[in-house]
Amino acid sequence: MADVKLDKEGYLLNLADWNQDIARTLAAEEGIELTDDHWEIIYLLRDFYTEFELSPAMRPLVKAVAKKLGAEKGKSMYLMMLFPGSPAKLIAKLAGLPKPKNCL
């Protein structure tokens, strides 16, 4: 990951640089070992970004997850369990996407 450029908050500067190894490295820096549950959300967010050209804040993220993966996974508590702190920001970072605009 030495040649991959990140901004001061750790988000990829070039979205095309993203791959699973980069996601694993960024996750490890956050103290997270990625499981199938994590990957399911990461890829859902990447699809969302492809469709809408934005990284969603928490509320639209929860709605998108509920729509695609069902009500059980479309809950803030589920996302916070997988991605502690600020799930919308952390998932975007691990998915190689820009920080959601309305997240501090």
Please write out the topology:
Elements: H1 20-29, H2 36-52, H3 58-69, H4 76-82, H5 87-94
Features:
104 residues; mainly alpha; Arc Repressor Mutant, subunit A
Concise summary:
The protein has five helices and no strands. The protein has 104 residues and is mostly helical.
Fraction of helical residues = 40-55%
Identify low-pLDDT runs: none
Q: Mind telling me the CATH class?
A: Mainly Alpha
Give the total of domains. Answer: 1
Q: Radius of gyration, Cα only, in angstroms?
A: 13 Å
The biggest sheet, with number of strands, parallel, antiparallel or mixed sense and barrel status, is:
none
SSE string: HHHHH
- CATH architecture label: Orthogonal Bundle
Relevant CATH superfamily: DsrC protein, C-terminal domain
Average pLDDT over all residues: 94
Shape: globular
Could you characterize the architecture of this molecule?
- This protein has 104 residues and is an all-alpha fold.
- The protein has one domain (15-94): DsrC protein, C-terminal domain (Arc Repressor Mutant, subunit A), CATH 1.10.10.
- The protein is built from five helices and no strands.
- The termini are far apart.
- 25% of the residues are buried.
- The model has no long low-confidence stretch (mean pLDDT 94).
